[in-house]
Amino acid sequence: MVTLAEVARHAGVSASTVSYVLSGKRTISAPTRERVERSIQELGYHPNAGARALASSRSDIIALMMPLRTDMYVPVMMEIAMAVATTARAHGRDVLLLTDQEGPEAVRRVIGSGLADAMILMDVELEDERLPLVHEAPRPAVLIGLPADTEGLTCVDLDFTATGRLCVDHLATLGHRELAVIGEAAAVYERHTGFAERTITGVRERAAELGLRVLHRPCEGSFESVAGALARIFDERPATTGIVVQNESAVGPLLSLLRQQGKAVPEDISVVAICPDQVATQTSVALTSVAIPAHEMGRRAVELVMAKLSAGKGAGTGTAGRVAAPPRETVVRLLAPRLTTRASTGQAPRLVP
Amino acid sequence: MVTLAEVARHAGVSASTVSYVLSGKRTISAPTRERVERSIQELGYHPNAGARALASSRSDIIALMMPLRTDMYVPVMMEIAMAVATTARAHGRDVLLLTDQEGPEAVRRVIGSGLADAMILMDVELEDERLPLVHEAPRPAVLIGLPADTEGLTCVDLDFTATGRLCVDHLATLGHRELAVIGEAAAVYERHTGFAERTITGVRERAAELGLRVLHRPCEGSFESVAGALARIFDERPATTGIVVQNESAVGPLLSLLRQQGKAVPEDISVVAICPDQVATQTSVALTSVAIPAHEMGRRAVELVMAKLSAGKGAGTGTAGRVAAPPRETVVRLLAPRLTTRASTGQAPRLVP
DNA sequence: CTGAAAGCGCTAACAT
DNA sequence: ATGTTAGCGCTTTCAG
Known about the structure:
Chains A, B: Residues 3-32 form the HTH cro/C1-type domain. Chains A, B: InterPro entries: Cro/C1-type_HTH (IPR001387), HTH_LacI (IPR000843), LacI/GalR-like_sensor (IPR046335), Lambda_DNA-bd_dom_sf (IPR010982), Peripla_BP_I (IPR028082). 2 copies of one chain form a homodimer. Helices cover 43% and strands 15% of the residues of chain A. Chain A is built from 14 helices and 12 strands. Chain A has helices at 4-11, 15-23, 30-43, 49-56, 74-90, 105-112, 131-136, 160-173, 186-190, 195-210, 223-236, 251-260, 277-282, 294-311, and strands spanning 61-66, 94-99, 118-121, 141-144, 154-158, 178-182, 213-217, 242-245, 270-274, 288-290, 331-335, 339-340. In chain A, helix 12 (251-260) links the parallel strand 8 (242-245) and strand 9. In chain A, helix 1 (4-11) packs across helix 2. The first copy, chain A, starts with a helix and ends in a 13-residue tail after the last strand. The interface between A and B is large, with 61 and 61 residues. Strand 2 of chain A pairs antiparallel with strand 2 (94-99) of chain B. Chain A binds a DNA duplex through residues 1, 3-5, 13-20, 22-23, 25-29, 32, 47-48, 50-57.
C-alpha cells in the first residue's frame, strides 16, 4: 500500500508538502506541485481514509437514514437516495446508508464514533423518536419531512398544503364543484407522517374558500381497496366530478375502475394525481399531476448539510465539550408544488338534472 | 470527546484492556470487564471510527454500488439495498452507498483509500466495465447479477433460466400450448443485463422440450406499449392462451387491456408474472407469479462478503505488495425460483374450432 | 514557499 | 489476566 511518505520520498519533498498539494490549503510552486502529482500518478497513491479522518476529525461522510418499510413511495425514496448520493459526491462526500431498523440510537453511534460528519433523515414523522438525538448531537442534521416542532431544526419537504390547494384550484377552474380525495392507506395517517394530513388540510382550506364540497377516503393500494373507496364516494356523493389521488399505487386501479363503470376520463370525471411523473405518464390516460420533487429534495438536503458543515467550522469541534452549544437556527425549506396538466382533467360536465 | 484512554483511566486499567473488552479478543476477568463497561456507559464513550480503521486497517464498511437508473425494478433494487444494509448491521458492518454515476473508478477509490473493506455490485451487466477493477482490487467483491465470464468472481442472482422454464412448466401442466412472453423494454436487452435473455432462454428451452410454441415481444412499461405488444401477439398467434410477463410495470395495463378486450383471466387467458409479490397481489386478479427474491439476494451477498473477509485474513493485507495474488475461487450462487399459484392461471380453454 | 515534528485515538504485538 | 509501547498514515501547527 502506497503511503503519503512514499510519495514524498519519490517526489523529493516533505510529507507536509504532499499533504498540502492534496488539500490545496497552502500555495505550492508549480514545479513542486507537478512533481508531486506525477509521483501520485506513478505510484497509484490513494490517501488513507482512516488516517485522514483521525488526523482531521472529519470523515467526509454523510449518513443517510432511510425507512426500512418498503410499502410507500418506493420510487420517491429511491430517487431521493440517489440524488443524495450523487450530490454528495459532487461535493466530495460519501454517503453511509442507515435504516431506521437500527432505531434512533444509530444517530448517536454514527455521530459519536465520528463515522459521519452529518446526517440526513428521511421519512420524518410528526413526533419522530430520532429528534431528541438530533438535537443533542454535536453534528449537523437535515430532515426530509416536517416534524410537528421544527424549532432549531433544518427541514426540506414538498409544500403538501400548497399541493392540496393547487389540486383544488385546478379542478375549480375547470368548473368542478364536488370533489373527492383518494388518500393514503389508513396506516399512513396513523403513523402521523404529516404529509398526508397536510395535503388534506390544503384541499379542505381551498375548497372552503371556493365553496366546494370535498369527501376524503383513505385507501390501500390494492385494486379491491380502490374499488371500495370509489364505491363509497359515488354512493355518498353521486355528483362528484373531480378526484384527487394521493397514493400512487391507486392510480392504475382507479382508471381501470372508472372505465369499467362507464365513466369517461376526463369527460365525466377529472383526475389529478400526486405522484411521480413516470407513473403519471405510463397510465392509459396520461394524468394531470403534481410530482413529488424527489431529486430536488435530496439535492437540497445535501446542500443544506454542506452549508451547515462550512458554517460550523470554528464552533462545533472547537475545544473541550462543556461549552453550551449556541441555539440552532431553524430552517424550513418547503418546495413549491408544480402541477402539470395532462389528459385526465377537463371541463366539468354540464349538470343534467 | 471521550477517548479510550480516558475510559482506561476512569476504570483504573490500561488502554489495551479497554480495547480488549471491546473486541473480545482476549479473556478479561469478569470484575475488570464490568468496571470497564460501567466506565464506558458513564462517560458515554464511542470508539473513534477513523482511529480504529487506521490502527486495524479495517473500516468495517461494505460499499454497495447501485444503478442510478431508476427505470427498472425499482422496488427490487430498493429491497436488495435494504437487505444489504440490515444484514450488514447484523454483522457489525456499515454500508457505503455508491452509484454507478461515478464510473468504475469508484471501485478503485473506495478500496484504494481503505474506505471500504469489500464491495457489493448491483445490476451487473454481461460485460461490465467494473469487472477489470474488481479483479485487480485487493479486496473481496460480490456481484448481484451474472456477467458473461464469472471466472474468479463471486456472484448471486435468481436463476432466471430456471424461472423461464418454471413458468412454461406451470402453463404446460394446465394444458396451454401457445405461449407468449411480454418481455422487458428493448433497452434492457440492448444493455445486456443478462437476466432478461436468460429468462427467454429458459422459456424457449422448456417450450421446445414440451413441444409448445412461444412468441416473445419486448415491451416498455407504458399502457400504450403493452397494448401494442398484446395486439401484435394476438395478431400473429390468435390461439395464444398463456402469457408470461417479465416487466412489472406491464402487469397492471395488461390486465386492464385483457378485460377491455373481453378476454377473461384465467378462463380465456392465463397470466404468469415475474414480479414482486406486492405487485402480484395488488392487481385486480391476483397473479400467479415468480417473485424475485430481492431480500435473499441482498442477504446472501453480504454473507458471501463476510465469508470472504474471514477467509482472506492472513493473505490479503499480509506483507509487501509485490506477491502474486492466488487465483480466486469462482462462486456462482443461483437462487431457485419459486412459483406461487394465484388466481391468474387456470386450465387452458378447450379448443372450439 | 517548504520542512520538521507532534499528535489524532486505537490495535496488536511483546512483555510479564 | 493485564500492562507497555510502537506504530497505523495523515494533518497541522511551528519554524524557517
